[in-house]
């Protein structure tokens, strides 16, 4: 329907119908329509709406969209997106274009520090938007600070769900929920309410390790600290869900010798480069198996019925190998092999 409206010259009508959808559905619709219809809608959609949409796109898709937009429109789009999403897309843009965009962004001070980290590390995944209270605050002072923060930044329930506590140097000391703060006595100190046993990760921690910690300990927001223990960002659960999906896809592809970036209609030579070594190894083992069979050719000539069992034996061997490989890959993914090896060594 969107493509038909654009073809008929009713681009504004198509935009209105697109905006009736939820943000995630808008992103999916834009990806699925033709390039011509995409370009037409990208030109008329407000920059603030595009900032929300790119948060639900893969980085490659967001980069493709941004490359078709006017360069002066990108700063507003990235200002409307979360800082870590903007950083991910800016890393993938041409360096010259990225520098021009950053120079015009209002949120550049929040985005620039994130560009220093790898996109698969906690530092590249974190967002610098969070609420941090001083441990010397009273409950009344802390509530006033939260209200002020909400007026300036926006009352986003995601950021206000859990509050972190730091000292005067910004070092992470603990955390507490907003419900704890609201229900406590107004004169009570935050340091007496906070949970000091809080789990955090460093900025260089791999995203898979961070995801494993959040899954194991049921953490909804994982604080990220620098080398001096200062709180610099937070990894939220909704971002980690995407990481878990990417890691699961990577493990499944690796199990059968495929690259995560490989697409069904992707470049032909990339598929050849990734698959050819594994196919050569498989061919070598098949030739070796055939040679072993020829050694017993005289026996099979005497008992022809043995030939009927060759496919059965090969099939059973393939099934057993696939099951074992799946089990090992899954155990590596969940770090069970590493724990078992460590336990055996101890």
Write the layout of secondary structure elements.
Blueprint: H1 2-7, H2 11-19, H3 23-32, H4 35-44, H5 47-53, H6 59-67, H7 74-80, H8 83-92, H9 95-104, H10 108-111, H11 122-125, E1 132-134, H12 139-153, H13 157-160, E2 162-166, E3 172-177, H14 178-183, H15 190-193, E4 201-202, H16 207-216, E5 221-225, E6 231-236, H17 237-255, H18 268-295, H19 297-302, H20 310-333, H21 336-345
Parallel strand pairs: 1-2, 4-5
Antiparallel strand pairs: 2-3, 5-6
**What is the top-level CATH class of the largest domain?**
Mainly Alpha
In spatial order, strands of the major sheet run 1-2-3
Please name the CATH architecture of the largest domain. Alpha Horseshoe
Estimated structural class:
mainly alpha
Query: What is the number of strand segments?
Result: 6
Described by the principal axes of the CA atoms, the overall outline is extended
Q: How many structural domains are formed by the residues?
A: 3
Helix fraction? 55-70%
Radius of gyration: 27 Å
Mean pLDDT: 82
- Count of runs of 4 or more consecutive helical residues: 21
| Largest sheet geometry | 3 strands, mixed
Summarize the helix and strand pattern as letters.
Answer: HHHHHHHHHHHEHHEEHHEHEEHHHHH
Can you tell me the CATH topology of the largest domain? MgtE N-terminal fold
Cα end-to-end separation: 64 Å
The residue ranges in which pLDDT falls below 50 over 5 or more consecutive positions are none
């Amino acid at each position: 329907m969107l493509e038909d409206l654009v073809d008929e010259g009713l681009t504004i009508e198509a935009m209105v119908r697109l905006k009736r959808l939820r943000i995630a559905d808008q992103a999916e619709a834009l990806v699925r329509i033709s390039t011509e219809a995409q370009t037409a809608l990208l030109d008329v959609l407000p920059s603030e709406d595009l900032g929300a949409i790119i948060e639900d796109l893969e980085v490659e898709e967001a980069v493709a969209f941004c490359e078709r937009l006017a360069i002066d429109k990108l700063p507003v789009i990235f200002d409307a997106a979360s800082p870590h999403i903007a950083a991910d897309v800016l890393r993938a843009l041409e360096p010259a274009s990225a520098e021009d965009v950053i120079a015009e962004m209002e949120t550049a001070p929040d985005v620039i520090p994130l560009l220093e980290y790898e996109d698969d590390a906690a530092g590249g995944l974190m967002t610098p938007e969070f609420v941090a209270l001083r441990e010397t605050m009273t409950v009344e002072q802390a509530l006033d600070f939260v209200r002020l923060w909400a007026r300036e930044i926006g009352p986003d329930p995601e950021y206000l769900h859990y509050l972190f506590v730091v000292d005067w140097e910004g070092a992470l000391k603990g955390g507490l929920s907003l419900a704890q703060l609201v229900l406590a006595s107004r004169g009570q100190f935050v340091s007496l309410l906070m949970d000091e046993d809080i789990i955090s990760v460093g900025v260089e921690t791999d995203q898979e390790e961070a995801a494993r910690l959040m899954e194991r300990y049921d953490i909804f927001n994982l604080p990220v600290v620098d080398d001096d223990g200062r709180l610099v960002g937070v990894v939220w659960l909704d971002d980690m869900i995407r990481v878990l999906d990417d890691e699961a896809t990577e493990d499944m592809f690796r199990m059968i010798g495929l690259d995560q970036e490989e697409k069904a209609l992707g470049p032909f030579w990339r598929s050849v480069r990734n698959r050819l070594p594994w196919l050569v190894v498989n061919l070598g083992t098949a030739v070796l198996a055939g040679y072993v069979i020829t050694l017993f050719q005289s026996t099979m000539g005497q008992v022809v019925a043995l030939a009927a069992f060759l496919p059965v034996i090969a099939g059973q061997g393939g099934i057993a190998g696939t099951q074992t490989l799946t089990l090992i890959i899954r155990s590596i993914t969940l770090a069970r092999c590493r724990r078992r090896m460590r336990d055996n060594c101890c």
